[in-house]
Amino acid sequence: MVSPTPEERVTRPCLTAGWVCQTFLHWRYEPRVVQALLPPGVVVDTFDGAAWVGLTPFVMASVRQLGLPRPRWTFPETNLRTYVRLGGRPGLWFLSLEVTAPPLLAARGLGIPYHLARLRRRSDGPVVRYAGERYGGGPSYRLAVRPGDPLAAGPLDTWLTARWRAYSRGSGVLWETPVEHEPWRLRAARVEEVRQTLTASAGLPPPEEPPLAHFSPGVRDVRLAFPRPVSGRRRAAG
Questions:
Q1: Considering 32, 52, 217, 221, which has the largest number of Cβ atoms within 10 A of its Cβ?
Q2: pTM score > 0.85 for this model?
Q3: How high is the mean pLDDT of the chain?
Q4: Quick check: 106 and 67 in contact, CB under 8 A?
């Protein structure tokens, strides 16, 4: 099972930040549908026989990236992701990442699919609203959620949210990026509006069910490690 706490320490991060005001929307998919989007060696992860795809809008707060002159900045981000294993180790696979910060596009060299977009978040009383449109007439989304009571995370809640590494493929190499942060403080959430074309843009059929929703006020001390190649070490085992 997926661990609810970090699986390794990140003592020399390449990026530190907070991930705040985060919503998780998740849809079930047939594993074969998601597997078709993954490269050789990366295996779709499943929970009770289903693959899951998540849409996660949030705010990157107090970002500090090694080597950049600007010390800290804050911007919205939205990820479309699924859950995989490589060599038996669970992690994330990003289908797309929408950002407003051009410096992050450098990560495309590692196969991380960043795209520049117009992204917005605002609070409307108890309702949190997000919206985004990729530049150039690409995919877009609108989302409104009403956060509920604090949630005692069950096995599926943990499986969907507590992932401690991301995988990517760039220049013919599979990469692993470990992450460390405090456990998520999850709340139940009710979806009041969702319209999106990100799943279709990633090559997925329309979701067949309403999404499962969670909300979190966020985690503050996020530490991303330097990406490391894993092709030779784990691809054969995967």
A1: 52
A2: yes
A3: 93
A4: no
